[in-house]
Amino acid sequence: MSGPSSSKLPINLVEVGPIPGVFDPTQKARILRDERSVLHFSAFDPLTAGGQDASLNLRKLNLDEEKHPPKRIVIEVAPTGKSTWRFVPSARRDEGVDNEGIWPRVIHICERLVYCSQDQWDIYKLDPYYDCVVKKYPGITTISPRNAAGREATLGPTPLGKRPYDNLSNDGMQGGPNKRVHRDVTMESVRSGATTEDEAEDEAEGDKDGEEDEDEDEENFVAEMVADETQYRNPAPPTSRSAPKRSPITPRMKPPPTPRAAKPVSQAAPFSAGPSSPITQTRGQSVPPEESGKKRKDFASKFEPGVVKEEQEEDLHPRRKRVNFEGIERNGGPSNPPYPTQRELRAKRREREEQKRKRWEKEQQARIRERDERAIREAMEGVPPPPTQPQSSYFNFQSHANQGIDRDSSMRGFSDFEEADMPKPESRAFTSEEEAARVAAIEESRRKLQALEADRPLWEKAAKERRAREEVEEAEASAKIEAKKRKEKEQTRQQAERLRREQEEAEAQIRREQEKKDAERARQAQERRARRARWTSGRWTTARAVERFKETSDYFDMTRFSEEHPLFIDDVPWPTLRHPDAFSLPEDVDWDSVEYFFDVLKTHMRTQEYIAFVEKSHRRFHPDRWRSRGLFRAVLDSEQRNYMEIAATTVSQALTPIWQKVRSLKQA
User: Fold this and answer.
1) What is the 8-class DSSP label of residue 300?
2) What separation in angstroms does the CA of 561 have from each of 572, 630, 636?
3) CA atoms of 417 and 406, how far apart (whole Å)
4) Which of 352, 365, 478, 482 has the maximum number of C-beta atoms within 10 A of its C-beta?
């Protein structure tokens, strides 16, 4: 079946739940007994509701016991609250597929790509209209409609919501289960062999071996689970030696019927088996036709009316395997449950597997024989066939006359009876042309074989030379590959070595630069401490304050401050008369202190020198000058940076009127 385009995304049915009729609205009528019913799905477990000790019965544990996978069941809850359940039927599987796989997964539903859940998959398996097939990998599981043309016309919904059964045969019989039909035949028909209809029926039954084996597996599985449940919950008490032992009854065995007087079989009227002969329906004269490879009931039991009645009831109703669930003997005393033991079930399973294995071996042997025959036919295509034998007696006589056959020797020792049974001489003759052609073909074949045998040393020599050349070429190719690998390995090693050296050099360069920076910072800190110690020691006077201002101004103007050479508060020539140890920013820098400092400075300098010093100081503290030199970025401490920015702005604003006065004096 051609699937949809892989470019389309699959339809998601995982979130739908156990709701039938998602794609097909008519599906509910085929599955639900009431439109308002609700479906639930679960798994059958014989230990369900068995209490906490159901799984802890260590005395019953067996390492050799086979654990079956959980069997899916469907539960239908009616609107009244009543719930019923049944087993979910199995899907068809391709050869080599063990199970139905893991859910959810992507499948094909009516040529649509669907991401399907296990509940929706079980719903389609319950629907008799659809055929569910598990394909072998890499095939995709498919759900497709069955051949519904004749089904809908002949079959209606079943009373229990089960799968409707197909027609039994082509003779118009309908409504029964798809199983074997035991027709009543006479003893003459049994002696003469199966009828034509029986043979056709056997062939149809042969095609259903796989399905019946699967049904047997399912029945044994259910019986085994019920047996396990009974053994776990109700362990059998020890019985007395005198108590009679009852043989266990398997699910496929029936209790012996009540013995009745069998009617005699009339053998007076002969019966001729043929396709047009009618089949009698006499109940007392019915015997089952023989069937190869199938389990048959006992021949004598078929004459019992009770058995025939039970078989007819089986044929008129859907297939139901009878399992005896009685746990008490008729006399009222306790007895062991009549369920098959694990050993019997395993023996049956091994027998089925052995039959499958033998069937597979026969198929393999048939394939091998067919392959050998085909090879022989292909090899003999070039050989001409043996000469044909002409039927002309005259030609045979002439050919024998030409060959000079000794009639006496040829006729010696034969009796009249032997002469009558022996083939005529004319059947052994053949033409000289065909014989010559055959001999020529044989001689040509021999000549070719001799030529080939004569050329054997040349072939062997050529083969040795070819092998030697191939070995040399392989050695050269291997040497080239090894050389290339060594070269690539050497290049990789050199590149890694170069990268390692570059990394080491970069790290060494970084260490050297860091050491250089650390040394420069240490030197700057040493100089700063020396300058500060020079002005903090000794008596502090106004003259020393003016001298410190001049010296600090020269250092401030000549030094290029940056992040590598940071700027500190002591490096700035603040116009103040306070002692360096008592000085603090921004409290000690204001308009009054700046004006007072320059008034005192005016008394210690000449007029022209004072005017030049004021102009230079005004340019030194201008905010644009500080930004152009990047002085604020050179201050590492953010708090000091804010204080210095405020103090520098205050000094610049206080120097502006002083600079204007000095400028007017200079112009005058």
Assistant:
1) G
2) 11, 8, 11
3) 21
4) 352
